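Budget justification note: compute hours in this period were largely spent on complex prediction jobs such as the one shown. Inputs:
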Amino acid sequence: MFLLMLRQSFFRGRRRKLLATSTIILAASLITALMTISIDVGDKMSREMKSYGANLNLVPKSENLPLEIGGVDYNPLKGEVFLEEQDLGKMKEIFWHNNIAGYAPFLKVPAKLEGKGGAAVPIIGTYFSRLVKFAGNEEFRTGVREINPFWRVKGNWPDDSKTDEVLAGATLARKLGLKVGDRLTVRYALAPTQPEAVTVAGILSTGGAEESALVAPLALAQRIYGHTGKVQSVSVSALTVPEDRLSRKARHGADALDSLEYDRWYCTAYVSSIAHQLEEAIPSAAARPIWQVAASEGTVVNKIQLLMVVVTIAAFIASGLGISSLMVTTIMERSREIGLMKALGAADWEVYLLFLSESALVGLIGGLIGCGAGALLAQLIGLSIFGATVSFHLIVIPVNVVISILIALAGSLVPSRLITRLFPAEVLHGRK
Amino acid sequence: MLKIVLETVGLTKRFGNVTPLDGIDMQVREGEWVAIMGPSGSGKTTMLNILSCLDTLSEGQYILDGIDTSKVSEKERVVVRREKIGLVFQQFHLVPYLTALENVMLAQYYHGMIDRDDAIEVLNRVGLSHRYDHLPSQLSGGEQQRVCIARALINQPAIILADEPTGNLDEANEQIILDFFKELHAEGRTIVLVTHNPELAEFADRTVRLHHGKVVQHAA
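Corresponding output:
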């Protein structure tokens, strides 16, 4: 009987129900959209931040000894110890291997030019955009073009497989009057070795130290240096989640965490846990997170999420108030019916149940439609802000439906107290 | 001697300085048909509201089927209402989105037990066998009042309280309803009917006349 009444009464006062449902749909779609973006904003921001360059530096462990005084590095081993190039593939074998978006090895060689007054020219060897193979013959394209999208080249990028093409840093090119297509002969500056003839394929602008150097394919730098298969450092671009309390605690070392915290930290893509896993994969390397990038990412994401929470609460309150006023009208209009139910012996809670169930139903329908509308809205927002679609997490549906039902119930709760104050004698035939 | 179903002792109702009912003493025995009459403002409706446990009294006692309703809580009064009383309204007061049958079953639902066959039988009795799937808006005034009577009868109440049951009906329907009340009376039902229609009161066993909140006449 209750379900029958609910079904029959639900389709009464359609205009009001439609208004109430629309209110919920508006709120639910807004909440769905914000929730979807909120969940995805970490990933999206992380990808956005990747355009600012690498967020991890891998160096040989012995070089990691801090010996910096007044900003000058006095470490006698600097540049003299190496990582094995062949070990780098192991980075794609760690727990968070999918989050390693790219890496670029570096080998800095002191060199000088033949001719041009024998000018000293550092050569930086790296991958430009190279297809590397790792476990199970999987392929992965990586290099400075992948991790430093802000590097600009006038001319052409050298081919990694050729060892006679280089990029000339913009400052160096200006100083020596180099231009695209120039042929140069370079040799190792500290010992007499075979000179190498190279062609300037392009002029490189980075805003960094590379502008004063020749940037060459790694193999060429290794040959000039006489250290085949060696690299000095690796810049790694990893997709990470924003820093939080746990990851900040882990900065004091993994020992600062208890076993549960450790598990959670290890299985979360914090920059610090990825650094830890890289060190596990390549024991001779020390991974240094670039904290400015990681921290600013966390701050921005936290602020966006906070803003979304505030907007969500505002939507919640606004639609709750809308429902509330509609409920007052409904109760007033249906006061005779309520009076009759009470006169027939319905307890207050039985009348409450009918009205709150109707509200819950409005919440359920509004919530479901709102989820669909919100998913679309999230895509629109994603496309206009991040230029990419936002991935929709299914968990948003139940959470949002529950929130919608709660909005409808919360909005109805206060007005439904009117039911208690409604005396059947007054509404059925007047008290006097 | 038949048992007393309804008894009021010094029943008084006050709203601030106004006293619509002032020390009413009244008894209704099982199977009796009592009409309460009086001009507008005499306290008839207030009296009916208190007798049907829709309102509370300010002083005195109201005992219904052995229960002193002046001493029970609001929750218990709800129980008394659904267990002991069948209400017939002048305005019918049917739930507009439920059919005639569902309206009758609603009273069963609040009473605690739904029996569709019983509800159909009562509707057959009031001559609505062909109309029980109709909504109130599809029924005439007389038919709506018959549904209202069927709803009042369905739980076998100790007493039927009717408020101007023919007040909104034309002559033909008034006669039909009157015949029902006669039939119910003949069956031994206890009926208290509030009216200012002397023709309706004429068929009652007794008439209680109210004036300014007091009983001015008990007439057989």
